[in-house]
């Protein structure tokens, strides 16, 4: 979307655990010969991954449907990694959207029941960033809110496995800006 709106692709990076998804992306958008985005296949939890090359270089990190894959500690850890990727100055920005819940808490994934996914509401998301700030010696202004749609009802209507999207599920949108 950024590139469609005119952002220079040479200034952009994309990352995912799966390198195959990047190759599929070129096939989908037919832009292998024009796109100058640097793609880095990496595990967010691997401190020695290729992401090390861009640590401290990034102005804006966008993460969609990502942190919600993990339990509370995993999300916390991932946020500390995101702090390291961002430039170490006020104004650095982390934005995105993920599934949240009016009642924050642990939800067990039905695809892999051993994985406990934590669903934040705006308050717990803000609390997480307060802790991340304390641990990393940084300060963040958090704007997070649950959108209106009832994702549980939508999942049921679409015949999707609604156990992973229990009642109270809503999109949690957020913008987390570094203040100090
Ligand atoms: C639900 S998809 C979201 C993809 C995309 N952001 C979107 O909104 O369509 C979650 C992505 O996270 C990736 N992922 C899962 N665990 C990861 C990890 N530990 N490090 C990096 N990426 C991971 C998966 O490969 C998957 O592509």
What would you say this structure looks like, in words?
Pathway: Secondary metabolite biosynthesis. This is Methyltransferase type 11 domain-containing protein. This protein is α/β, with parallel strands linked by helices. It folds into 2 domains: 1-41, no CATH class; 55-178, Vaccinia Virus protein VP39 (Rossmann fold, 3-Layer(aba) Sandwich). 26% of the residues lie in helices and 26% in strands. The chain is built from 4 helices and 8 strands, in the order βαββαβββαβαβ. The chain has helices at 19-29, 72-85, 122-136, 151-157; strands at residues 13-16, 38-41, 60-64, 93-101, 105-108, 116-119, 140-146, 169-178. It has a 4-stranded mixed beta sheet, covered by helices on one side. Helix 2 (72-85) crosses helix 3. The protein is globular and about 45 Å long. The protein starts with 12 loop residues before the first strand and ends with a strand. The model has no long low-confidence stretch (mean pLDDT 94). The site of S-adenosylmethionine has 11 residues, from loops.
Structural category is alpha/beta
> Helix and strand succession?
EHEEHEEEHEHE
Please tally the helical runs, counting DSSP H or I stretches of 4 or more residues: 4
Counted beta strands: 8
The level-1 CATH class of the largest domain: Alpha Beta
Catalogue the ligands. S-adenosylmethionine
Amount of beta strand: 25-35%
User: Going by CATH, what is the homologous superfamily of the largest domain?
Assistant: Vaccinia Virus protein VP39
């Amino acid at each position: 979307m950024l590139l469609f709106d005119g952002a220079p692709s040479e200034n952009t990076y994309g990352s995912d655990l799966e390198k195959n998804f990047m190759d599929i992306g070129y096939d989908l958008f037919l832009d292998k010969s024009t796109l100058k985005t640097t793609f880095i296949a990496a595990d967010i939890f691997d401190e020695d991954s290729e992401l090390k090359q861009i640590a401290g270089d990034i102005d804006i990190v966008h993460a969609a449907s990502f942190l919600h894959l993990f339990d509370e500690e995993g999300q916390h850890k991932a946020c500390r990694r995101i702090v390291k990727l961002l430039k170490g100055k006020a104004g650095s920005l982390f934005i995105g959207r993920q599934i949240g819940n009016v009642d924050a808490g642990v939800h067990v994934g039905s695809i892999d029941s051993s994985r406990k996914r934590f669903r934040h509401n705006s308050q717990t998301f803000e609390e997480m960033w307060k802790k991340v700030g304390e641990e990393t010696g940084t300060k963040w202004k958090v704007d997070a809110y649950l959108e209106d749609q009832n994702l549980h009802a939508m999942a049921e209507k679409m015949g999707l496995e609604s156990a992973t999207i229990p009642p109270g599920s809503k999109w949690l949108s957020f913008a987390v800006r570094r203040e100090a």
